[in-house]
Design goal:
Number of strands: 7
Distance between the termini: 46 Å
Strand content: under 5%
Helix content: 55-70%
Number of helices: 25
CATH superfamily of the domain at 9-164: Oligopeptidase f, N-terminal domain
Largest sheet: 3 strands, mixed
CATH topology of the domain at 9-164: Butyryl-CoA Dehydrogenase, subunit A, domain 3
CATH architecture of the domain at 9-164: Up-down Bundle
Shape: globular
């Protein structure tokens, strides 16, 4: 293999890959469980028309569904992780297709359950909830009951279940196009070596000191997106159409309210985030101007916003070194937290570490009940942000671990709203740890710059993304067409708002709206911004040594999905229905900016 080639999985040592045998010993065992579920699920029909017969009958059908869900979650987890290893592997694609088809059949067969629960009259439902037979299901049942205005008749639910896979095809189209079909070519780096430009390596080029290399990487990368812009715009448009269809089918006033309702998050939280950030853009513009001056540029482009401002510091950390840094940073959370994570990263093979051919880009954490909370990385030792990415994904994984070990299966799955708190909390502790352990002013400036960029990327940038999502869904709901030109023009207006007058907006940047994976998973991105705001507040309490703050935070991790997210955060000391957490994070951004200005003068 030549130095510029992306390695295949056979080129990577087993110790650097996740160990999926902890899910299934081999594919034959997966096939056995898959076949078992195929045989099991039709048996749910025995409860059709009988769900509200008695508390005992209701408990029986719920326990049967649970036994199905436990197996199906594990089956899907294994298949989806294999596909993440290699998106072009036909065998993996076939298995995920099999799982999706089986999920559709199960959804169709079980479509009567929730409508029949909703049909139970209020007095009888109250008696059922009080019955000991349903003591383990009270939280789940109350959440189901709350959805009553948006649950349809059994035949209608069956139709929606049948169409669920077809209605999400845009996501597969986007993933296959961007991860497999699109080819970005190679670039010659500053040392004269040819390196492949990929979805994963793009970030590596953007942190290089060489301005011309960053510029070439940006334009070459987006040239490929420009060649596929109409296909991507069609995929995004159908993603929005599917969101609006589901919302209208279930009688929600809008797609936004449909997305927020399951978490019991009022629209004012979403709108309040946008309003607070929009009202505090001046420090962001001030930072862009500092960046332009520090890099000695006449004008600042988007591809100039990721390179560290401290030129003398070149970072290079192996994955193992990064893991030790993360573990050291998380020491304030106590021995149990650190020991479990250390075992998972060092010897437990939770993490699939490096980029390989066909592997999904980016990073994620993915868990299932009683199984390791796996981490996918595309780690690069010369991208310091990857150390933070590891801390971030470890936060998700430990949230999963604590939740699995504290909650019943039906209550363990925490909402994404809370997930982004646990992940960004870890990043805040990492920054504090790095600042505490360095005496070098240049390294301090580097780390502060990194935290500023993290806040910029998570608070400001994700809020801009959230505003874009709200705009394009409103356009679809008004009956207007979502075309490539509409996407680009709406996105360009937001770029003009969220960037300063001294910032040069390259025309290609309008295409960024087509390459953000989360836009194909609607109204997700705002949770990054609210998450980092809550994380800043919680981490400041832990780092201050406040009595009981660690215990309160670990209880937060243990809570899983046993409460609605705003209630869970309020118990942990953060009220997201007010602007206080957002404004606190914005103040931290301005405080760090002032310190960085002093260090760079």
């Amino acid at each position: 293999m030549s130095p510029g080639d992306v390695p295949t999985r056979t080129d990577i040592p087993e110790s650097d890959k996740w160990d999926l045998t902890q899910l299934f010993a081999d594919v034959s065992k997966w096939q056995e469980d898959f076949a078992r579920v195929q045989r099991m699920y039709p048996n749910i029909a025995q409860w059709k028309g009988r769900v509200g017969e008695s508390a005992q009958t209701l408990a029986e059908v719920l326990e049967f569904e649970k036994s199905l869900d436990l197996r199906m979650e594990r089956v899907y987890h294994y298949a989806s992780l294999q596909l993440a290893e290699d998106s072009a592997n036909n065998e993996y694609l076939a298995r995920v297709g099999q799982v999706q088809n089986l999920l559709t059949k199960i959804g169709e067969a079980a479509a009567f359950v929730v409508p029949e629960i909703q049909a139970i009259d209020d007095e009888q439902f109250a008696r059922f909830i009080a019955d000991p037979a349903l003591k383990d299901w009270r939280i789940k049942l109350q959440k189901i009951r709350r959805m009553k205005p948006h649950v349809l008749s059994a035949p209608e639910e069956r139709i929606l279940a049948l169409g669920s896979v077809a209605l999400s095809g845009y996501d597969d189209t986007f993933s296959q196009l961007t991860d497999v079909d699109m080819k970005f070519g190679v670039l010659t780096d500053a040392a004269g070596r040819e390196r492949p430009l990929t979805q994963s390596s793009f970030s590596s080029f953007l942190v290089k000191r060489n301005h011309e290399l960053r510029k070439r990487a940006f334009h070459q990368f987006y040239a490929e997106f420009q060649d596929h812009q109409y296909t991507l715009a069609a995929a995004l448009a159908y993603s929005v159409k599917a969101d609006v269809f589901r919302a209208r089918a279930r009688h929600y006033p809008s797609a936004l309210e449909a997305a927020l309702f399951p978490d019991d998050v009022p629209v004012v939280v979403y709108d309040g985030l946008i309003q607070s950030v929009r009202a505090n853009l001046k420090p962001l513009f001030r930072y862009f101007d500092l960046r332009r001056r520090a890099l000695e540029l006449r004008e600042l482009h988007h591809y100039d916003t990721y390179v560290p401002l401290v030129p003398e510091i070149e970072t290079s950390f192996t994955f193992d070194e990064a893991a030790e840094m993360v573990l050291g940073a998380l020491d304030p959370l106590g021995k149990r937290y650190v020991d479990v994570l250390a075992e998972g990263l060092r010897t437990g093979r939770w993490c699939d570490r490096y980029e390989t051919k066909g592997k999904r880009s980016g990073a994620f954490s993915s868990g299932s009940y009683d199984a390791p909370p796996y981490i996918l990385m595309n780690y690069k030792k010369d991208v310091f942000a990857d150390v933070y990415t590891l801390a971030h994904e470890a936060g998700h994984s430990m949230h999963s671990w604590f939740s699995q070990n504290s909650q019943l299966f039906q209550d363990y799955e925490y909402p994404i709203f809370l997930a982004e708190v646990a992940s960004t909390f870890n990043e805040e502790l990492l920054t504090h740890h790095l600042l505490e352990t360095t005496t070098d002013p240049k390294m301090r400036a580097y780390i502060i710059n990194r935290q500023i960029d993290d806040l910029r990327g998570t608070l400001f940038r994700q809020t801009m993304f959230a505003e874009f999502e709200k705009i394009i869904h409103a356009i679809e709901e008004s009956g207007d067409a979502l075309t490539l030109d509409v996407f680009k023009s709406e996105y360009h207006r937001l770029l003009e708002t969220y960037f300063a007058e001294n910032f040069t907006l390259d025309p290609e940047l309008d295409l960024e709206c087509l390459r953000i994976p989360h836009f194909y998973h609607t109204f997700y991105v705002y949770k990054y911004a609210t998450g980092i705001s809550a994380a800043v507040a919680l981490s400041q309490r832990v780092l201050s040594g406040a009595t009981g703050s660690v215990e309160v935070y670990l209880n937060f991790l243990c809570s899983g999905g046993s409460k609605f997210p705003l209630e869970t955060l309020k118990e942990a000391g953060v009220d997201m229905t007010t602007s206080a957490p957002i404004e606190s994070a914005l103040r931290l951004f301005e405080q760090r900016l002032t310190e960085l200005e002093e260090l760079l003068v």
